[in-house]
Amino acid sequence: MKVDVILGLQWGDEGKGKIVDLLSNKYDVIARFQGGPNAGHTIIVKGQKFVLHQIPSGITREGVYNVIGNAVILDPVILLSEIKKLEAANISVRDRLMISKKANLILPTHKLLDAWQEKSKGKVGTTLKGIGPTYQDKTGRFGVRIGDIFQADFDTKYQQAKMKHLSILRAMGCEDAIDDTAFLTALEEVKTLHLADAEYYLNDQLTSGKKILAEGAQGSLLDIDFGTYPFVTSSNTVAAAACTGLGISPKKLGKIFGIFKAYCTRVGDGPFPTELLDEVGENLRQKGNEFGSTTGRPRRTGWLDIKALNYACMLSGVDELFMMKMDVMNDLPEVKICTDYHDNQTDESVSFSELTFNSDIKQAYMSMPGWSEEISSIKNYDQLPTSSKNYIEMIENLTATPISLVSVGPERDETIFRS
Ligand code: IMP
Question: Is the pLDDT reported for residue 419 higher than 80?
């Protein structure tokens, strides 16, 4: 058996929650492989909305097992509050959730460091969940892992990390008091959850013929290496990260599914070549409810960027594309696709990678007629308005990748399968 991977191809918020929930009835296990509570995967089942920050999006499907992998970072307070919300909605969690003992903990001081780094070091526009500082400690070999909570020296390790952080914070001018009561209380309850060396479990599942879907968070353009550095998150978000984030051999990767929105959005600062600062952009924001599910911040909106999409497809070897929020594009007289960027001075084509160094660019767009029909209730591809089908097929041509699923609304059944 192979592990299929699902990942975002833009700057996050593509709709991974809905699709993982939707596809999870075809899998035995859903495993999150990177990121932390900076993610906000939204699932709507029969009108009930769940926003998952830590728990994999297979949890809303009865019978599906869920794994939080080693490269995910964990805020125990958020994790437990999420478990309790799901349980209040009669969804069983504790018997269907395994957490890798190797997952690093987000400490209360990591969150303060995130806030102070944002204030003092040039803004990235982070989610303020402590993501950067926690991954910094992980790679600096100073991290505290969730499996450490069972060790006799846990308290010493935690106090050492806290002291180190406090001295950095003081040097930054932060005199904020640290209240870690909620954190320490949550950790006691985390001890009752299923913590294990998840890589053994996942490989055993594959051997016994079980199907696994690896769930990515954020998006490819926020990848720590390939994204618009330094305006990126602190983990690898491309398909290869599923291997190191779960302990699975690259030989065991199966299909790679890439999710993108019919337009683009981005939260936080950084390059965004197709950004729309006009009424069209505002319309997409309002109609698409483009406000962060983790932070509530308004998302920047813009036209679809094929150059960026092709870059993301190349990095992960995407086999199939899933196109989200097609319904949000209704009622536009024309829709545009950015096909290239050029240097304003030399007119030479600029690659996506070069955007970090060269912001003096002009975009080349192709324009297509829009569609005005309401499409959310359409179940069959052939019934879509011709101009919307032309838009979809143009993207397939430009990416040389099939679009096998088109989402036309937030509910599970507002989805058109093409294969
Ligand atoms: P961090 O991951 O909180 O450190 O934030 C770094 C950058 O990634 C910021 O621009 C965030 O807005 C962005 N970001 C992080 N997680 C997500 C996500 O799940 N969706 C969209 N943007 C995200």
Answer: no
